[in-house]
Amino acid sequence: MTSIFDSGGQGKQDPFGPLRSLGLRKSAEETGLKGVERLAAASRKFRRPHQLRQVIQQLDLYVDPQGLKDAIDWIKQQYDVHDIEGLAGLFSRCYLGHPYVDHRMTIAGGILEHYEPKDLVPAPYSAARVLAANPSYDYIEIYADGQMIPIYQDGSAGDPVDTASGRATR
Amino acid sequence: MTSINIDFGPVIREVRSAVSEVDRHVSMVEGQVGQVSRDLSQASRELQELKKQFDEWVNEARKTAAVQRAETVVGNLKADLDRKYGHYRVVRRSSIGTLEALDVGIVSNKSVQQVSEELMIQTPRYWLAPALVAVAAWSRDDQELAERAVSESFSRDRSKCSLFFALVLQRQGRLEGASRWIRHYLRSLDPLNLPREFAVILEALARNGFGLHGRHFVEEQLDAWLTMLRDDPAKIAEQVTLWVRDLQNYGGSIGQDQFRALRELSPNWPAIEKQIVDASVLGNAHARYAAILSTRVEVSTDVLAKMDDLLEILVREYDNEELPLRREVALQEAIIEFQGDIGRARQKAALEDQAMAENIDALSMQTYTAMMPEVLGVSVQTQIVSIGALKSEFREAVTAYTGFYRARALSSAAIDLRPDHSNLAMQYDFPGWRTRTDVPQAESEQSLTEVWNKTMDKLREQAAFKPTSLILPIIGAVLISMMFGFHIVALLLLGGAVGFYGWHKKQKAEKELAMIEKNCQQALEVSVDRYRTAMVEFADAMFTYEDADAKEPMLLSLIDSWPSSSVKEAAA
Questions:
Q1: C-alpha–C-alpha distance, residues B121 and B105, integer Å
Q2: Roughly what angle, to the nearest 10 degrees, separates helices B303-317 and B199-206?
Q3: At residue B336, does pLDDT exceed 70?
Q4: Which residues in chain B have their CB less than 8 angstroms from residue A42's CB?
Q5: Partner of B559 at 20 to 30 A CA spacing, among B32, B99, B234, B458?
């Protein structure tokens, strides 16, 4: 089976070159994904369970640092269960209200940081800001490899967006 | 000593009237200069407007010309197709005609033989002609000739010939023979390089054309291929890319008369426009695919009619010699469809071009039949089945597409009042002013007022009455009175004249200042008005965008609820 693949797949020229150069979509070879990493990319597509989304949405409510830390640990565990590696943090709209509009949650360090519109969000989270503002998405996952995955309201994962291709609002 | 009484009265009256006369002339000239400058700026403004309209018109005319040219070219190309391959059409018609004639048995074997042999001579190298001879020979039990004719047809085009006889045998109810041909056909294929006519197999599956046994066999084979192809993420990524490109064809357009102020005043307009057009794809694609799903498909239960349809598709659609001309036709038709927008037409034609490749892998073929069935000559029914088989790729393409433009979406824009944004701005050398839509309106208007005030300050300064302007007249008066030996009357009179001159100057300056104030107010009002219009239009544009963008769930749920075909999806 693989032999057919090899003989047919390589001789053809790439008809999607122009689109790839737009950064819209990269083939597995181009992004340098190897077998294991491909699996990792595929595993990021699982539907995020309701409970997980609820905890993420309610992160604003934690007032004591220990409670917040526990919540973040729990979130990390949920991703670990699905063999998700390289999750650096989350970015989403903030429900604290004025003057805050959004916040980031980092796995390492377990912090939650709220931002006002005028604040500068540190990279790579800054790229997620526009996406997080879109009401279609619940929150945005930021990965160490530079991918952002927007999570829809129903928990389904969107297609990964490059943090490099997104850009700050200003 | 006799005192000399000189009556300066007339002289002074004369001087006064001369001064006021000169003054009148000067202010008349001033008025005319002002008028001229206003006229000039008015003229230049009108010229700009004219240029804009002219550019719009030229653009429109270019598109219209492109459409007209395309219409002519399509006509010519079709005539070309007809001229070059018209004789094929006779064979195509005759093939189904022959089968039908044989069914009813009202045409003698002799004339069938004669017709098929004539066509054989008239259309060299065409695979269908010997196939027809074979059918004719078969009908009169001439086994030897039938076999020779079949092998001739087979050598001319193995794949089409196999498929043709599979369909013909199926049509005549020779199921076993039909399955043998089908098996033969499928085994000869490479799933990475399927010939175009394989689309007929998809069509036959969608129409349940193979009977129970044949169907099972074909589905199994197709499933195996698709599963194998789906093992390669790059192949899936390719399909997603194709879907994204298909989606891009559904972008709407914004009329030239919409968002006029924003178009003119915001340097971000191109990005805003693109953002709205990109988002409009969602609603348009939903409308298109919903219409496809609700198309009433007439399912013919009559096996003969069904097989005749399939045969017709097979003999009509897939002759590779015709492809170059058909590609050209596709481009011209796209130009007509996009009303002369050549860039977008090329984009669409490029995608169709790929679908017209001579060899396509099984997965891409299914994608093409899902996106543009007409290019592969299959029916809406097949399209619906194919979309069902490709739901996961379609869904992924939608989320990739939206993620792509959303990551670049603007939530605010710059508004730029250039030095020439209004007549008064041009007249008074307004230096230009820039703000952003996310700056509070009061703050922006405040800063706009300040810029206008600063602009007018210069004019006010020029127009204001300056006591220094009296120095020269005073020196003059002193010199004149020296000539009269500082005579008291002369002193008084000259002093009065200078005083009058000063008073007059001051009056004029005040009048001018009042006019400047009035114009300043008016200019500011015009500018604020432009700014506010742009702000309203920006809010409107964002609303349009959000509205269009919010249609994603609708499209996704249409895809999710799309009926899945029996050709199983690989586990997504």
A1: 25
A2: 160
A3: yes
A4: 233
A5: B234
Complex ipTM value: 0.72
**Chains A, B: CB pairs < 8 Å:** 97
Per DSSP, A159 falls in state: -
Give the 3-state DSSP-derived string for B98-138, with helices as H, strands as E and coil as C. Answer: HHHHHHHCCCCHHHHHHHHHHHHHHCCCCCHHHHHHHHHHH
Grade residue A35 by pLDDT with cuts at 50, 70 and 90.
low
When computed from its CA atoms, the radius of gyration of chain B, rounded to whole angstroms, is: 42
The answer to whether residue B238 neighbours chain A at the CB level (below 8 Å) is: yes
Direct distance between the N- and C-terminal alpha carbons of chain A, in angstroms, rounded to an integer:
51
Which of these, A75, A83, A29, lies nearest to A52 by C-alpha position?
Answer: A75
Classify residue A109 by its DSSP letter: T
Tell whether B232 lies on the interface with A, counting CB pairs under 8 A: yes
Contact B234 A27 (CB under 8 A): yes
Tell me the C-alpha distance between A23 and B396, whole Å. Answer: 16
Decide if pLDDT at A20 tops 50. Answer: no
**What does pTM read for this prediction?**
0.76
Determine the pLDDT at residue B553.
Answer: 92
Write out the DSSP string of B278-327: HHHHHHHHHHHHHHHHTPPP-----HHHHHHHHHHHHHHH--GGGHHHHH
- Per the listing, tokens 């000063």 go with B502
Give me the amino acid identity at A150. Answer: P
- Please say if the pLDDT value at position B566 is more than 80: no
Helices (H) and strands (E) in chain B, counts: 23, 4
